[in-house]
Amino acid sequence: MTTQAGGLGELPAAVGPSDQQQQALNDAWNTYQEIEDRLNQANIPQPSVPTTNIPTVTLEVLRGLSGDQYMEHYLALDAWHSFVGETISQLENIVLQIENETEDLGSHIRENMVQAAKTQGTNKPNDVDVKHAIQIHPRVRWLRLELQKNKQHLNRLLSKQKSLGRAEKLMSRNIERVKASMESAGGYGGIQRRASAGVGIPPRFGGG
Q1: pLDDT tens across 40-64, in order?
Q2: In which element (H, E) is residue 50 found?
Q3: How far apart are CA 138 and CA 103, in angstroms?
Q4: Per the CB 3.0–4.6 Å rule, which of 53, 116, 139, 140 could disulfide with 7?
C-alpha cells in the first residue's frame, strides 16, 4: 500500500499542512509493510494465490465424485477460503491505515487554519468552514478515493468468503454423509468404490 503521492502541492500552506508535513504524516502512518515484514520474520509469509481455479459445488459434483476427487475438491476450496481470508485481513489493515492518516491530516488542517487566523488577526474559523476545507483538500480527496477503492475490494472479498465458506461446509457435510453410508453398508457395501481405501476424510467444517 503506497500513499506517498496524491494531493500534494495543490493548495497554499494557509489551507493545510505543507507538502513536507503531509509526507511526514504519510510516513508516520505507513506501517503496513512493517507489519508484513514482522510476519515474514516469524515465518508467516504473505498469502499466495492457489494454483487451482476456484472450484464450484453443484449437485452433479456432490453426486459424481470419487473419494480422491472429493478430497481434491475440498482441499481446493479450503485453499481459496484461506487465501481470501488472508487477503481480507491485508485490506482491513490498509483501510485502517488510510482512515488514520486521513483523520490526522484533518486535525492538522484544522490547526493550520486556526493558527493562520491568529497570525492574520481574523476570526477563528467555524466548524463548517473547517469541515469544508478538509473535504476539498486534494490530499484528503485522494485518500478518500483510495479508501473507497479498498473498501469496495474488501466488500467483494467478504461476499466471496461467505460463498466459499458455504461451499466448503456443504462439501464437508456431503463427505460425512458418504462416509456414514459406507460405514453402515459394511465398508463400501453396495456403494460403488471409486477411490482407494486409504483416502482420508477431512474434519467436518464449521461444526453446523
Answers
A1: 999 998 889 999 999 888 888 787 7
A2: none
A3: 14
A4: 139
